[in-house]
Amino acid sequence: MAEPLSQELLLPAEVKQLVGASNPDEQSKLLLELGIPHRLLKQRILVSRFHVREWLAGRQLVQSRGVNLAAVK
Description:
- The longest helix has 11 residues.
- It is built from four helices and two strands; from the N terminus they run H-H-H-E-E-H.
- 42% of the residues lie in helices and 8% in strands.
- It has one domain.
């Protein structure tokens, strides 16, 4: 059974602890610099625990922008 979304996402205090900033815009900037995928939703940063674990393990995280239709022949 899948984990509820509330358990998959970092709490706002955990995001603040991870990046050392409390302003969502600053948090987003720092997460982008670290290469951790995230979303900004109504002045709240959404970060997956899975992505943070992968980042901590040194794995390259690639944000998908969807299907590259130019590459389809």
